[in-house]
Design goal:
Strands 6-9-8-1-4-10 form a six-stranded mixed beta sheet, with helices on one face. Strands 3-2-5-7 form a four-stranded antiparallel beta sheet, with no helix packed on it. It has three helices and ten strands. The chain is of the alpha/beta class and 159 residues long. Keywords: Signal.
Length: 159
């Protein structure tokens, strides 16, 4: 009986590990133009809502889903940009997107956080600031924004 219990926990651990990002470790994006900056969108490794990976939209274009412990890096023109999440209707997320100002040659961090309440799953985008963002993102793995992994509702979870 004890062996079955150990095998079950091992299977669950491996399954959950598959829900985390697995790309290269974080590295600073070197921008190619003096009129651009780096925009990082990341999701800290948190157990809440680990099975749900929101899609990420930047300026109206959907790129890829952001798994737990993952980040995406974009070189963008200096100025205001809009970051949005793509989620099923049953999950609560705040507002119509986060407006972000990226300065020339600047690094800006956008954090996607999640939490469970008694009867609701919430997803939030916020600006943690350079010090917090650069520290938290160091533990994240890169997700290729062009991977083609768009958000699609999961029949078992989203219904």
């Amino acid at each position: 009986m004890k062996l079955k219990s150990i095998l079950l926990w091992l299977a669950v651990a491996l399954w959950l590990a598959g829900c985390a990002a697995s790309g290269p470790a974080f590295s600073i994006l070197k921008t190619s133009s003096p009129n651009s900056g780096a925009l990082y969108i990341y999701r800290p490794q948190i157990m809440a809502n680990v099975l749900i990976s929101p899609g990420i939209k930047l300026d109206g274009t959907e790129y890829a889903t952001l798994q737990n412990g993952g980040y995406m890096a974009f070189e963008v023109a200096a100025g205001v940009h809009t970051v949005e999440m793509v989620l099923s209707k049953r999950y609560k997320h705040e507002g119509d997107g986060l407006k972000v100002y990226v300065p020339e040659r600047g690094d800006v961090f956008v954090r996607l956080t999640t939490q469970n309440t008694l009867n609701q799953r919430r997803f939030l985008l916020d600006l943690p600031g350079f010090e917090v963002g650069s520290t938290e993102i160091a533990a994240c793995k890169q997700v290729d924004p062009m991977s083609g992994n768009k958000h699609s509702p999961n029949f078992l979870i989203d219904n």
